[in-house]
Amino acid sequence: MKQFSEVAVVGGGIIGSAIAYYLAKAGHQVDLFEAGQVGSGSTQAAAGMLGAHSEYKAFGASLHSFARTSQKLYEEAETDIRRLVGIDIERRTGGLLQLVFTAEEKARVSEICSLEGVTWLDQTSAEKEVPGLTKSILGAVHIADDVHVTPAIACRGFHSAAQMLGARIHAFTRVDDVVNEAGWYRIQTSKGEWQADYAVIAGGVWSNVLLERLGLGTPFYPVKGECIAVTNTQMPLSCSLFHDQHYIVPRNNNELIIGATKVRDDWSTEPTFGGIQTVMEKARQMLPEIEKMPLLRSWAGLRPQTIDGKPLIGEHPEKKGLFIAAGHQRNGILLAPVTGKMICDLIDGNAVPEVWTKAFRVNRLNIGEEVWI
């Protein structure tokens, strides 16, 4: 028996959950479909850094506002989610300390030192901020607003709040096909068929399967990230540590999350000996005492990336009512709220900054155009 929905969201990671939350908050009837447990894929594997400033080079000046908007939306969502469903997304303040080892690295971070909430610390001041920090640094950049959340809990907060607002969450419901019919979309799932006015594909790297069937190619490839967790038995750590795309992130349960490798085109979610060795060595370089901490576990996740490093967010120009929101690479947690709100605004016909719609337009890769901002 066919069932009906206004908006079908395919993918129950933090991106899909945030989309469902903002759509439900705006009064839309939403059905969210997830092949497994909601939030059990790349979301669960992430560290949760909201690094708008530390990722400044990746975003560029033109898109920095996109990341900063998402940081601010997290503050609003944190309050709203707690009010609606009583979930604390563990948005932990304290900021991020980006370590600088060489004069060349110091020159590279000079641009972000002019940004709001960013302070340069010499080696002595940095060590006062984090006792036990390596003495090999020249200094560090403290970024007050680059805080972090616990991704699995934040994802649960978004989809639980969406459900409280009327969204229907379909866990363990695989979407096998999305078919463009005359003015609507047929959503074929492992538990039956839905008819939807709008379809939003937000399944991370696994979105390729549906997009290829829709004639949109396979725009995403996996970047495997390997991580470990240790129990912090040595020192208080109130901020995240960051250097050369590697990090140490403190959690509320006294764990330190340490990562991550970047292995292109590897579809395996099993960590390797070599990958974990790399992660451990980078952590030791930042915080030598970490080698004394008990090892808890290791894991790997698949970050979805495009050839130009920017996500696809928006409506396909030739398939009205079909929206894509995937390819956020290592910034999926950071960009979840602004992506959710952007998709909602596009469906509602609200204004979205042109620089965002142009940079993230979903057909730019199909026509061989790479957008470098």
Automatic annotation (TrEMBL):
NCBIfam families in alphabetical order: thiamin_ThiO (TIGR02352)
Record InterPro entries: FAD-dep_OxRdtase (IPR006076), FAD/NAD-bd_sf (IPR036188), Gly_oxidase_ThiO (IPR012727)
Name under which the protein is recorded: glycine oxidase
GO biological process: thiamine biosynthetic process; thiamine diphosphate biosynthetic process
Record bears the keyword Thylakoid: no
Domain FAD dependent oxidoreductase: 7-346
The keyword GTP-binding belongs to this UniProt entry's keyword annotation: no
Originating species: Terribacillus halophilus
UniProt keyword annotations, A-Z: Membrane, Oxidoreductase, Thiamine biosynthesis, Transmembrane, Transmembrane helix
EC supergroup of this enzyme: oxidoreductase
Transmembrane domains' residue ranges: 7-24
One Pfam family here: DAO
